[in-house]
Amino acid sequence: MAIRTVRVEGDSVLNKKCREVKEMTPRLSELIDDMFDTMYEYNGVGLAAPQVGVLRRIVVIDCGDNPLCLINPIIVETSGEQCGDEGCLSVPGKFGQVTRPNYVKVACLDRDMNPIELEGEGLLARAFCHELDHLDGKMYTELVEGELHEVAQAEDEEEE
Ligand code: NI
Questions:
Q1: Of these residues, 30, 131, 142, 150, which one is catalytic?
Q2: What is the pLDDT of residue 154?
Q3: Looking at the chain, which runs of residues are DSSP E strands?
Q4: How far away, in angstroms, is 125 Cα from ligand 1 center?
Q5: Please, what's the largest Cα pairwise distance for the chain?
Q6: How far apart are CA 153 and CA 138, in angstroms?
Q7: Interatomic CA distance for residues 81 and 44, integer angstroms
Q8: Which domains does the chain have, with CATH numbers?
Q9: Ligand 1 center to 87 CA (angstroms)
Q10: CA–CA separation, 90 vs 139, rounded Å?
Q11: What is the CB-side half-sphere exposure of residue 44 using CA atoms within 13 A?
Q12: What is the pLDDT of residue 65?
């Protein structure tokens, strides 16, 4: 278990397409543990493997009550629409408004490589879309409507 370095925008690893996971290995299992540690350390709700420099189709998400590990995820259904602020650990201190579906269903493998389906609404649906985009080298900043804005310093302090 370890905190890994989060790659920031400008690092070319964030713009590459990730490869599928064919089998779970001790090395990938350790990567998943480290991704959870890293996400919690930086108070993120999701993290994709390329954000720690590994080009594999692996995502971890925790919107507050349920740690999820998604391997080779694919969006199979969406509905509705939501518009709200989005941020990314690879674009520290910034937020921007992005429109996403309000409901998303994902088909993937869990960390034991069993096929599962996951459904999310609201923040979880947004996290599915944002993190899965990372696996295809896409950053949310390409989707921002209007301008990216900075998190005010005062807000930062209040949160801590
Ligand atoms: Ni992100």
A1: 131
A2: 52
A3: 46-48, 58-61, 68-79, 82-86, 94-100, 103-109, 115-121, 145-150
A4: 14
A5: 46
A6: 28
A7: 23
A8: 12-151 (3.90.45.10)
A9: 7
A10: 9
A11: 27
A12: 83
CA distance 125 to 70: 13
Low-confidence residues in the chain, pLDDT < 70: 152-160
CB 74, CB 107: distance < 8 Å: yes
Helices (H), 5-135: 26-41, 123-135
Mark whether 117 is an active-site residue. no
The β-bridge partners of 48 are 59
Q: Tell me how far CA of residue 128 lies from CA of 16, 56, 146, in angstroms.
A: 18, 16, 22
For residue 114, the tally of other CB atoms under 10 A from its CB is 9
Question: What's the confidence (pLDDT) of residue 50?
Answer: 98
Q: Say if CB 116 and CB 108 are below 8 A apart.
A: yes
